């Protein structure tokens, strides 16, 4: 049986990198005595996969991992079981059963919501909302994408699905996943370039709010949160 | 939410910020309102090393079980953070509360190896606690040292207020109670230290004076006030089944060196190898009850979520109920995705059978520690392993499908001759030949034999404590002889030989048998920039050489000089139970190449029976 787990990552846990979070959850499954499935062989590992890695320093309300289990009680108890063994800064919020033929989380990630805010002490001393609107109204937003061998100019505008400015914060919906992935930091860098202003390092606090799959056909985008693809276990 | 001592900007700049944020699973949390004694427990190396050390986990658990006491952890900041802390004047902090160490009542530092001494000074320095004990005021924490290196604490005497000699489970309660009383009645730091000197196992270096002969050896070592003991008695837990053991060890977020549940099955060792300090200072051998260990194993795996468990002791094959314990672990946990990581076991049919159940035979390797190349020299060092046993074990393993063998040797052992050195190559060759006796169609390609040699450092409280140690040049010369002999062997392509760093060994030798005069040299080396000396990439031999030069101390005085039995040694004021008479007896038997039976076979009257525990009680 395949299970999708949603969790929050906040506070000092933002300093724990993706690989360590994976190892953390492997241990948490054993502490919570989740009846998880193991692979065969001399060093069996848990059947577990994460939707999208989160960079060090970024907090989130919408992280996902999929696991395979032999048995479960119900969603409510499982969430409680897990939260009893969590470190401060990780909280499990959903535990749902996936349909038989569901694809794993990683392969279906299509978009993510982010909130970008100014770190305390790094706020801009000039109004920037209107500038940001006109920055977003450009026909294209070009950035230099550096790879090991070359630099390539790419237009990130098509990857920004929506944005709103709210209370000195910007909410984004951005393309995510293996095909097209846009990090909010890149937009802010491009905005700096547009303003001819260099943001100091650590200016922005980034928070991921949700990760989506695309259930639309063909070109039409229809996004649903990854957790909505499963059902609560009563 | 927890506050953090370091800003986001710093944490996002340095390597592995998880080293400094605490908040790990099973971390102790206490309400500051209910605490009257704060103890910072330090391992003076990087987090990943320090977190792997069982001793701190045991004491951390013990302290935090006590009402009013809060024990927190601190490790050496890595070089990146070290630079930032100095530049921004950030005081070193404990992981749990993130509070500065200088606000604590105690700073306890475990001293596991000589090459961490400059890291100890870093800890004090970054904590903004005066490095010299005699410069500390009523405001500063009491700095206390423990661990194996405190069996000769003298090189560090200038930097510590107290040393705790022996196992931490016995006298700390006394120490904390004394502290509470003294604090309540408004007594001074000095008065507290004098009071501590009465507690069994506590050594207060400032209360003892040392004088020297003109040749630099010690003339006298005496208390400088009345009514404190002349000798300090090592502390021992009589019954290791009736003491503290952490059922909920702290689980790090990042991968640490010992990333698994560690089950300490036994303390001490019955073998009595003459070079081995642990084998002498942890006497008597005491085993933990097997039923208790099964319970601990279950609880610790459940409370940590680790997927691996390993056994810890000096010689696990000597644990009486090893078969029962291993079979239980395999039966109970193997099906639950838990790996059983085996300690170095004596290779026989039982251990090979167990190993084949828990390891991939083709990938895993077997380890033998003959320590010396010939039977003659193995008799000198009292290493019971014979060539027949090694070849028999290796043979069985090769038949069972293993192809990799690791061999550990020491070079520079007392009485070592060229024949002994060549013996290392010859023994490696014999093992390789044993492999190729297996018909070609039945073996898995070539075998791989890796022989490593470390250089011998005479340690305090061993029968070899009086012996001369080799110079760096002599060590390297001997390694070269072995290396050349390796090249002459028929199966040289299946044998790999490597040897340790010689510069580091020489320094280890100085500090291991050093005296108080070395304090200024260590301080000088630290000022020259020495830090993380045990990390090859940070080790600067020249800084140390400059420090010796400046402080006018002669390395050879501490290393190559042969001591005589009459010399007052810097550590003679410590009583480890094992008597000097026994060590001298063993020294002489070594010269005569006579072995001493292990404690299970026969009691050799070492003196450890005064502790009335463990193996001594069984005789």
UniProtKB/TrEMBL annotation, chain A:
Where does the DUF2344 domain start and stop, copy by copy?
A: 3-184
Q: Which domain of life is it from?
A: Bacteria
A Pfam family of the record is DUF2344
Which protein are we looking at? DUF2344 domain-containing protein
From TrEMBL, chain B:
User: Which ranges carry the Radical SAM core domain?
Assistant: 255-501
GO molecular function ontology, one term from the record: iron-sulfur cluster binding
Q: What is the official name of this protein in its record?
A: TIGR03960 family B12-binding radical SAM protein
What lineage, starting at the top, does this entry show? Answer: Bacteria, Bacillati, Bacillota, Clostridia, Lachnospirales
What NCBIfam families does its record include? Answer: rSAM_fuse_unch (TIGR03960)
The protein's superkingdom reads Bacteria
Origin species: Anaerosacchariphilus polymeriproducens
**What Pfam families would the database entry show?**
Radical_SAM, Radical_SAM_N2
Matching InterPro entries: CHP03960_rSAM, Elp3/MiaA/NifB-like_rSAM, Radical_SAM_N2, rSAM, rSAM_horseshoe, rSAM_sf
């Amino acid at each position: 049986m395949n299970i999708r787990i949603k969790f929050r990552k906040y506070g000092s846990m933002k300093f724990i990198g993706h690989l360590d979070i994976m190892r953390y959850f492997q241990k948490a499954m054993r502490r919570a005595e989740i009846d998880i499935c193991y692979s065969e062989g001399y060093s069996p590992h848990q059947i577990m996969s994460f939707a999208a890695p989160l960079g060090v320093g970024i907090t989130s309300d919408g992280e996902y991992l999929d696991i395979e289990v032999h048995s479960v009680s119900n969603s409510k108890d499982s969430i409680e079981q897990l939260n009893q063994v969590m470190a401060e800064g990780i909280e499990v919020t959903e535990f749902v059963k996936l349909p038989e033929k569901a694809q794993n989380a990683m392969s279906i990630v299509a978009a993510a919501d982010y909130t970008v805010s100014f770190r305390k002490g790094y706020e801009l001393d000039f109004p920037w909302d209107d500038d940001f609107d006109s920055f977003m109204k450009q026909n294209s937003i070009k950035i230099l994408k550096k790879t090991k061998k070359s630099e390539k100019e790419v237009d990130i505008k098509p990857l920004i699905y929506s944005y709103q400015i709210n209370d000195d914060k910007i909410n984004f919906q951005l393309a995510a996943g293996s095909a097209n992935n846009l990090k909010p930091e890149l937009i802010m860098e491009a905005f700096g370039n547009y303003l001819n202003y260099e943001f100091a390092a650590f200016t922005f606090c980034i928070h991921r709010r949700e990760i989506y799959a695309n259930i639309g056909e063909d070109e039409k985008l229809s996004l649903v949160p990854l957790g909505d693809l499963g059902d609560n276990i009563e | 939410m927890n506050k953090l001592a370091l800003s986001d900007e710093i944490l996002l700049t340095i390597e592995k910020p998880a080293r400094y944020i605490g908040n790990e699973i099973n971390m102790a949390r206490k309400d500051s309102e209910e605490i009257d004694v704060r103890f910072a427990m330090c391992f003076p190396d990087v987090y990943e090393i320090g977190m792997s050390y069982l001793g701190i986990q045991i004491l951390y658990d013990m302290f935090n079980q006590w009402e009013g006491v809060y024990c927190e952890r601190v490790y050496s900041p890595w070089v990146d953070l070290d630079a930032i802390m100095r530049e921004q004047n950030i005081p070193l902090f404990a992981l749990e509360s993130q509070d500065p160490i200088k606000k604590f009542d105690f700073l306890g530092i475990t001293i596991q190896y000589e090459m961490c001494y400059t890291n100890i000074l870093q800890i004090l320095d970054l904590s903004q606690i005066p490095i010299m004990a005699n410069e500390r005021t009523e405001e500063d924490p009491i700095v206390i040292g423990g661990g194996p290196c405190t069996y000769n604490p003298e090189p560090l005497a200038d930097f510590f207020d107290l040393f705790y000699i022996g196992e931490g489970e016995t006298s700390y309660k006394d120490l904390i109670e004394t502290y509470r009383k003294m604090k309540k009645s408004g007594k001074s730091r000095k008065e507290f230290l004098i009071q501590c000197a009465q507690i069994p196992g506590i050594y207060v270096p400032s209360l003892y004076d040392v004088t020297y002969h003109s040749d630099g050896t010690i003339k006298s070592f005496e208390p400088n006030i009345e009514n404190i003991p002349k000798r300090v008695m090592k502390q021992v837990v009589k019954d290791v089944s009736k003491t503290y053991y952490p059922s909920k060890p702290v689980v790090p977020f990042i991968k640490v060196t010992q990333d698994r549940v560690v089950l300490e099955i036994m303390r001490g060792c019955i073998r009595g190898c003459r070079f081995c300090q642990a084998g002498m200072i942890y006497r008597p051998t005491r085993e933990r009850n097997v039923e208790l260990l099964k319970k601990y194993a279950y609880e610790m795996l459940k409370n940590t979520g680790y997927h691996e468990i390993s056994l810890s002791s000096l010689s696990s094959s000597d644990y009486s109920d090893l078969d029962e314990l291993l079979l239980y672990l395999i039966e109970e946990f193997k099906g639950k995705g838990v790996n059983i990581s085996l300690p170095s076991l004596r290779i026989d049919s039982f251990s090979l059978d167990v190993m084949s159940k828990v390891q991939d035979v083709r990938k895993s390797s077997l380890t033998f520690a003959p320590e010396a190349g010939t039977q003659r020299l193995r008799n000198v060092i009292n290493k019971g392993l014979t060539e027949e046993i090694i070849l028999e074990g290796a043979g069985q393993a090769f038949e069972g499908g293993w192809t990799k063998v690791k061999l550990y040797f020491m070079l520079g052992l007392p009485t070592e001759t060229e024949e002994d050195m060549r013996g290392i190559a010859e023994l490696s060759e014999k093992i390789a030949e044993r492999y190729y006796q297996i018909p070609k169609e039945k073996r898995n390609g070539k075998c791989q034999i890796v022989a490593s040699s470390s250089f011998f450092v005479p340690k305090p409280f061993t029968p070899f404590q009086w012996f001369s140690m080799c110079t760096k040049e002599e060590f390297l010369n001997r390694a070269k002889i072995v290396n050349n002999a390796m090249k002459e062997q028929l199966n040289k392509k299946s044998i790999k030989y490597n040897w340790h760093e010689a510069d580091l060994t020489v320094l280890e030798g100085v500090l291991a048998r050093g005296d108080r005069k070395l304090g200024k040299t260590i301080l000088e080396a630290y000022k020259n920039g020495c830090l993380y000396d045990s990390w090859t990439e940070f080790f600067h031999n020249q800084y140390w050489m400059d420090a010796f030069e400046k402080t006018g101390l002669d390395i050879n005085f501490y290393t190559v000089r042969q001591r005589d039995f009459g010399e007052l040694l810097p550590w003679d004021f410590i009583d480890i139970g094992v008597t000097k008479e026994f060590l001298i007896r063993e020294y002489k038997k070594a010269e005569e190449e006579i072995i001493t039976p292990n404690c299970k076979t026969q009691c050799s009257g070492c003196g450890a029976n005064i502790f009335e525990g463990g193996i001594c009680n069984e005789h």
